[in-house]
Amino acid sequence: MSISKSRGSKFLRFVKNSNISQRFMIYGLAITLFFIFLVFFAPAFQAWGWLQNPTDSLINPIHEPPSAKHWFGTSRQGYDVFSRTLFGAQAALEVVLLATAFSMIIGVPLGMVSGYLGGSLDRALLFLMDSIYTLPGLLLSVTLAFVVGRGIFNAAIAISIAYIPQYYRVVRNHTVSVKTEVFIEAAQAMGANTWQVLSRYLFFNVIQSVPVLFTLNAADAILVLGGLGFLGLGLPEETPEWGHDLKQALDALPTGIWWTALFPGLGMTSMVVGLSLLGEGLNEFVNPRLRRENSIRKS
Asked: Taking a C-beta distance cutoff of 8 angstroms, is the pair 157, 241 a contact?
């Protein structure tokens, strides 16, 4: 007991003595890990009988307010709102991780190759990425969702296209500045080919900002997925998804049925805030200029 108390007090002192960016990261990491914990154990909670199946419609009661039996109440369709909210987080994490992974896997190599080789390839890719970047992300995702259809994988594809230019531009700009360094020229003089230079010498020197982009894009992707679900273009209707549930809750709001919109909205907002705080905190660790400014301000 004393060991756990001492560890807890040390953690509280660490949080108290941390600067704003470090606190952002701690709070954001705590919120994100909380959602990951819920998502990971939600199937187990359902198997143990603690959660109802989110796709099972209850004949009665419908529109029941929050109670001991239904913590977040029930919806007009007879769904348990607590179960729908919890499994909605699972759907959001699956789509967001796939979407950000797709955009990162495509954008990072393209940015490295474009910045290192330059020439007509660089100009063509810059034109293409700038053209994609000028389009609003939600509008682009909605258009692609019409083409690819519904589903977790399809929604991730529709969302990921809008984030590829961000990874491309950040990595390309870093590559352009790093490729003129002495160690790159030494590697080229020693006979390293293009693949060896990119993989051994450039990669780990140009991806410092990628984790920050990953978290911030993940936060934005949750909102985009919610927008797709609200428009009926995200996941299948029976799949628990926050945007779709918010759309279904709109008709009930004028009659005083507030809980069907409140809890999915809080879930979406909380996850977005957690990922945004995590990204802002990570930005200090990958940006030396921010670290120097914070240390000067603290002193």
From this structure: no
DSSP character string of 249-279: HHTTGGGT--HHHHHHHHHHHHHHHHHHHHH
Residue 12 scores a pLDDT above 70: no
CA distance 148 to 235: 12
Phi, psi of 236 (to 5 degrees): -55, 150
What pLDDT was estimated at residue 297?
A: 47
Q: Is the pLDDT of residue 2 over 60?
A: no
Transcribe 13-41 into DSSP letters.
HHHHHS-HHHHHHHHHHHHHHHHHHHHHH
The span from the CA of 206 to the CA of 114, in Å, is 13
The enclosing H or E element of 81 equals helix 81-117
Distance CA 288, CA 299 (A): 17
For residue 233, what are the CA distances in angstroms to 88, 146, 167, 198, 199?
15, 7, 26, 39, 39
Average pLDDT of 65-79?
Answer: 84
Summarize pLDDT for 34-59 with one digit per residue, the tens. Answer: 999 988 888 888 777 777 888 777 65
CATH topology of domain 35-58+90-298: MetI-like fold (1.10.3720)
CA angle 187–190–196, rounded 5-degree value: 50
* Cα separation, 245 vs 259, whole angstroms: 11
Q: Which of the four pLDDT bands, split at 50, 70 and 90, describes residue 125?
A: very high
Answer whether 144's CB lies under 8 Å from 160's CB: no
Number of Cβ within a 10 Å radius of residue 234: 31
pTM: 0.85
> Which tokens is 46 given?
């359902």
* Contact residues for 244 (Cβ-Cβ < 8 A; gap 6+): 229, 230, 232, 234, 235, 237
Q: Residue 93: what pLDDT? A: 92
DSSP 8-state code for residue 77: T
